[in-house]
Structure formats: structure tokens, C-alpha cells
Specification:
This protein is of the alpha/beta class. The protein is built from 9 helices and 8 strands. It has one domain: 3-Layer(aba) Sandwich (Glycerol-3-phosphate (1)-acyltransferase).
Length: 272
């Protein structure tokens, strides 16, 4: 596989200011949403009708790539050849509603996506995600969260490849949050390589609390894999922090976990 896989689509729209710029941005956003609905509808129909999990995942990936093409979003993937051919766990930063679609478009069909449990309450989303083999993780109910964590550990021990957004959610503020440890505990349990992925550009296109997408470009960096047994102490916390630092080095966004830790330390001392 080449080091860089580029989709050269339409040229980015030229910048325009004032009223004309806002009209063009709105028109593009409406167009992008209409085409998104069409492609998602095709993906749902494919997931419902096509037999075989791998074939369904391939169909959904094709629909995701089709939308990026139709929406004119130039997407560059670098380091794809470093993705291990065997089982592994991908961990990526989470900045936009589009991040799951982006990984679905470019990851091989062997990957199972780990989704927040709230999506099970949305009937159509629950049906679709279940049909493509996603695993749900409860974030707020302790007993269910523990059960789901045990399921992930068993899946990892069985050698299942997974894709996870370990921040758990995303916010409008740029930066990388602290990582939840479930994926890293699963990697340690199964001695599966952790593959950090940095997604850039999705926050600009469709950040939290924004309805209409903007035109933009995407950069996806697949970083070197880390096997737990090669890390000192083989500790899930150390593994999570090592993955965070790899992503931060590429992302060029603030370390929000460090900022919050610093504020926590400062809050214990009177201001000078």
C-alpha cells in the first residue's frame, strides 16, 4: 500500500466574504446534507439487505467514501501501510460528528466500531449499527459500563480488531481530552497492538453544535503501532498516555487533559 492515499476531488471553494460568502457557505451546507442523507440511506439499505457482516461493512465503507467524493471533501490518508495486517485496536481523536464516517470510509472491514451506548436509544441508528457489528459501551450506568468493559476484554482476548474514540465524546473547543481506559485495558488483556490515528480537518467541517457542514479538507495520519508487551510495565494508563502523546504530536491542538490537571493543581493553592 502506498504511503499516501489521496482523493483529489473538487477544488476547494474560493473564499468569499460578506453576504455572498455566507450564501455560498449555506448553499454548500444544504447540498452536503442532502447528499449525506442519500448516501446514508443507501448504507442503511445495504446493511439491511446484504448478507454477511464483511460484505455489509464494505458496502457502508463505499457509501462513506462516495459521500466524501460527492461533497467535494479532499481526503489524504498517510501512513496507511503501518496498519498491522493482523488484529489490533485503533484509537483516534474525536472532534466532529463526521469522525466515525471518516474511519468507516478508510479502515478495512475487519474493524468493529465501539459506539457510545446512548445510540441504542435511537431505533434506526441502533438497527444500522447492530447490522454492521458495532459494540455499544454504556458510559453513565456503572453496572452496565462494567458489563460492557468485560465484553470488550473478552472480544480483545479473542483477537477482535476494534476502532475506538477513547475521549468518549467531542466538544467545540479544539484540543485533545483525556482518554478513557477501556480500549487500552482490552489491548493489554489480548496483547493487541494499539494504533493511534490523528484526524485533522473534521472539526472545521462539522464541529459540535453546528448543523450545516462547511467545505474543507481532511488529513488522516495512521501512526506507528504500539504493542502493550513492548511498553514498560505493560500498563493501560501508560499505554493510553503514550497514544495520546503520539496523536498530540501530529494534531497541533492543545492538551486539554494537561490544562485541566494544571487547573486542578492551581486550585489547591492561593493565588499570588
Amino acid at each position: 500500500m502506498k504511503n499516501e492515499h489521496v482523493h483529489k476531488l473538487q477544488h476547494p471553494m474560493p473564499a468569499a466574504g460578506g453576504v455572498i460568502g455566507r450564501v455560498l457557505e449555506t448553499a454548500y451546507g444544504v447540498y452536503a446534507w442532502i447528499t449525506f442523507v442519500v448516501c446514508v440511506s443507501a448504507a442503511i439499505l445495504s446493511a439491511a439487505a446484504v448478507p454477511g457482516l464483511e460484505r455489509r461493512r464494505r458496502g457502508v465503507s463505499a457509501a462513506a467514501r462516495a459521500w466524501l467524493f460527492i461533497a467535494g471533501i479532499r481526503t489524504r490518508v498517510s501512513g496507511a501501510e503501518t496498519l498491522p495486517p493482523g488484529h489490533c485496536i485503533v484509537v483516534a481523536n474525536h472532534a466532529s460528528y463526521l469522525d466515525g464516517l471518516i474511519l468507516q470510509a478508510f479502515l478495512p472491514p475487519r474493524f468493529t466500531f465501539v459506539i457510545k451506548g446512548e445510540m441504542q436509544k435511537v431505533p434506526l441508528a441502533n438497527f444500522f449499527l447492530t447490522r454492521i457489528g458495532s459494540r455499544f459501551v454504556e458510559r453513565f450506568v456503572a453496572t452496565a459500563s462494567s458489563r460492557d468493559a468485560r465484553n470488550l476484554l473478552r472480544a480483545a482476548a479473542a483477537g477482535e480488531s476494534m476502532a475506538v474514540f477513547p475521549e468518549g465524546t467531542f466538544h467545540p473547543q479544539p484540543g485533545l481530552q483525556r482518554f478513557r481506559l477501556g480500549a487500552f485495558a482490552a489491548a493489554v488483556k489480548g496483547d493487541l497492538p494499539i494504533v493511534p490515528i490523528a484526524i485533522r480537518g473534521s472539526r472545521h467541517i462539522l464541529p459540535a453544535r453546528r448543523i450545516l457542514p462547511r467545505h474543507g479538507t481532511l488529513q488522516i495520519d495512521v501512526l506507528d503501532a504500539m504493542r502493550p508487551s513492548d511498553q514498560e510495565g505493560c500498563d493501560k494508563r501508560a499505554l493510553a498516555e503514550a497514544a495520546r502523546q503520539k496523536i498530540l504530536a501530529v494534531l497541533a491542538e492543545p492538551d486539554l487533559a494537561a490544562v485541566r490537571r494544571q487547573k486542578g493543581v492551581e486550585s489547591h493553592f492561593p493565588s499570588e
